[in-house]
Amino acid sequence: MPTPSLVRWFPFLAWPRPTRALLLGELSAGLTVGLMLVPQGVAYAALAGMPLVTGIYASLLPALVAVLWSSSTRLGVGPTALTSLLIGASLTGLAQPGSAQWVALAAWMAILSGGLQMVMGVARFGWIMQVVTSPVLSGFTQAAALLILFSQLPALLGLHESLFQWLQAPAMASVDGAAAAFGLGSLALLVVAKKRWPRFPAVVVIMGAAAALSGAIGYAAHGGTVVGALPGGLPHFSWPGALDWGMFGELTMPVLIVTLVSFLETASSAKVDHQKGGTRWDENQDLIAHGMAKISSGLCGAFATSASFSRSAINLYAGARSGWATLFATALVLLALLWLTPALFHVPQSVLAAVVVAAIVNLIQPALARQLWRLSRVEAVIGVATFALTLATAPRLYWGVLVGVLMNLTHFLYQRLHPRIIEVGLHPDGSLRDRHLWHLPALGPQVLALRMDAELDFASARAIEQRLAASLHQQPQIRDVCLFAQPINRIDITGVETFSRIAALVWEQGSRLHISGLKLPVEQALERAGILPSPNIHGYRTEQQALQCLQKTPSVTGQEAS
To answer: What is d(CA 165, CA 93) in angstroms, rounded to the nearest whole number?
Structure first.
């Protein structure tokens, strides 16, 4: 058995030992996913503006590297629609799609993004991905899905011009009827197959049938747009050339967004994987693994990869139990690269567009906005704003994510700066609740009892101090002030200083300060500051002790309380 330290560096050593039964099951799952990798890789390469064969390159070595070093061994790693769109949109205006410069820049994006992910994983910064909340991700994803849809419509419908130009002056002469038939027919079949036979490799069958029919009718010979000749053989490792500082600056923001979005794609799949397996997700290890995968993709002359939610789901549905399934899938991709690329020659480009559209159509869910509105109007506005800005700023899609993240952080900071502070009263059920909301009497004569549902730190300290000062000013008859501190899990230096001022304020008022349920870390911080213990501060371990004391006569002492 390998040692834990060795497994830490080489996670694949912890894979289950191969048995005949295990390998047969993994072979079945691997072939199912592998049959999807090649056609989807080619289609997503077109979406990224890359040479089509690079989509197959991105499905081979990166998938192998990711599964060997990942903690999530059942993910379908390779090109994805969202990441491919980001790459294509980010490079628009910097180079000509498909050119050597475009390929070099895409490779640099993969290398830089992969390097950033590796650094984050080594530094244990996986938590930073939590800054992108569900509303932000949902708004961005749906906007991106719409952009993908509209970008594929000209090819899907066989248009010889942009969709906008055609809508201004519709003419059948501008439509390739055969391309439209191939595209729309393939899309219909893919949608039906996805609903009725989710495990069936419909993409391969439909693409193969389209290629056969295209070749039979001489579609390419009559000027039809097809995949064409793809180079066979393994990719060649190469450095994508020098990157000057000006171009590095242009790529900085796109690289950050590709890193963020691609790993969020991975996270959504990994969480499902580990939930089904009953294991804990190590996001930092996956950051390292998928960073290595991106770097290997860039060195192969391909583009950034991610984990596909659909391929990962199919892998799980097909019964994959370990990374052996992915090894079989990559073996199939290898065979395709070595011997099967000529079979793709006659595949119409409209069929590739149908593959992309079928993959992203389920991402468009208008009902989510209504659900968000019912749950939280603020977060719904953030999601809608992210959606609108992503569409408005295309092709610079990162602005939508950035503004969404900033809006969400602003909302978070506002909530931290305005913590929930309530005056509590004793409910008939024995619990302490908001006395004004529930119309409860005070805990005792001349008693002010407050509870702050937040940490006592730089963000919330001013709010509790202001609330206490205002209450004492409005009610000068108060002689006992009690702070129910159970929700306060942490205190910082600002909080310590504020607590000292609160104690002084209560003393100056001629009142007594009572603290109930102080957590040990908070108590220790106050002790180190010399504020506790104090004869002027009466402490209680439980709410019951505090209530017993506060409901007695105002002459209660700290000795009685203890």
So the answer is: 20
